[in-house]
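Comment thread on ticket #2218

A.B. wrote:
> Attaching the input chain for the structure job we discussed in standup.
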Amino acid sequence: MMRTLRISRVVAALIAASLLGGSIATGLADAAPAAAFGACPDGSVMPERGVHCAVVSVPMNYTDPDGPRIELTVSRIAATQERRGVIMANPGGPGADTLDYWARRLDTLPAELNAHYDRVAVQPRGLRWATPLRCPADSNAAEGEQVSLGGGSRDAIKKACDAALPGYLDTITTESTARDLDEVRAALGVERISYLGVSYGTYLGAVYASLFPAHVDRMVLDSNVNPDWVWTEEFAQQQVAGKQRLDDLFTWIAEHNGQYRLGDTAFQVYQNWVRQVADQGGGWYANLTPPPASVSDLPGRLPEPLAEIARDGFNGSMEQAGKVQNLLRTLISGGASAQVPLVGATAVATYTRTFWPVFAKAMADAKADPANVAQLRAIEGATSTDPTGRFVFAAITCNENAVRGRPELLGAAVGTIASGGNAMDARADMVRSGMTCGSWRPVTKLVPIAGRDLRTPPLLLQSKHDALTKYEGGPAMARALNGSLITVEGGDHGTFGRGNSVLDEAVMAYLRTGQATISNADQAPLPTS
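C.D. wrote:
> Ran it. Output below, let me know if you need it in another format.
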């Protein structure tokens, strides 16, 4: 979600509808063409994992079901023993590839899940392998180049996208994607599906449950979007949560100073971090309030769009707004490549503690030899996405953003950065200013989230210090769906299937019985080297 996460994929031959077992099937639920599984697209899934794929045709615009259609690729790994049901997954984004989600986790997910569930993943509309959203630049641009989604003018973006497939851009929404899931469910010939959603996938699952409650068996939502923050406030709160997780990371490194030699207090680790970011050319990215003190005199070069505002003020022009919008997309949608290696790697390290030892080692190596940033770049690349992912991220978040912008906060953000204040506070204010989408206004109303018609209340998992989906999202989503919440210590983003045996068993007990067995769990242990 937001800073898009790295994820994975799935499939095997479809068993006849009359043989579908467990609580999930009553024969062909809808008159839909059956999914025919075979080989997966080149490069989409890990080989030799039992994954098969099918292509399912769905309406491009659900308000015009007899109009143009698009194609989605669906992956599936069959249960190895007696099947209890079908479970779909979405790992987040929006804009994350999905086909390989299950295959990449065969060795970390509970064996019971692999044995008894057909694991299905649907590549979301707009991405590669799912009628990609293409918005070609003008005829003078290089072949394959697309328009800038940070240009500020939705009219220009829409014109470019419509040149490839008229009307498609407006259909790239969470509601359309949820309706796609139900089309796939029907093509699989099952009455009800279970669902695992992570990050943005929690919001997609909540929308699906609200639209199609009769077709939901069990639902596990891990690291939840706050349904009251879609989308501007969700991204602003992400900056606040990220700062807390950085403090946790620096504290952990200090506790292991004997191994990494980066300082025996969080503040000393922070000072080392600032020096390395500055040496790598990070400028204002180094302006983070250190733990536990504060600082107001850090040097930091302002990015050009913000320097212009500091010098001349914010004039509200399309050109100026577009520049700020481009900068914001770099900050919040996974554009870490525009930053220096240490900053990009740090962002990834906040996702999960499993990155912390390798991150600390990479930072120590770079301290010893400033040219040695290969491992930092490898960590930074762990969340890289296909370019179509960035287009889908922008399309969904701007097509349905329901939080009004506050342009007056842009000046406050620039003042914070110019004075050497906390860059994350400034980023939060920039997001709240509404510049993320520029002049792009929403084209759809959000689906009201409600769980009153679900047969089984969902199970929600939420870390206390999650850096990408702030903790409040868990309780808020649980209230909206009448679900049961498990609060997890620490700050891992994505808690299921990470070696946390207590939490994993609670999830499997829920899938078996529909009951939540615990309300709190410790964080996953760090892997031993």
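A.B. wrote:
> Thanks. Noting for the ticket: Residues 2-31, 293-300, 333-338 have pLDDT under 50 and may be disordered.
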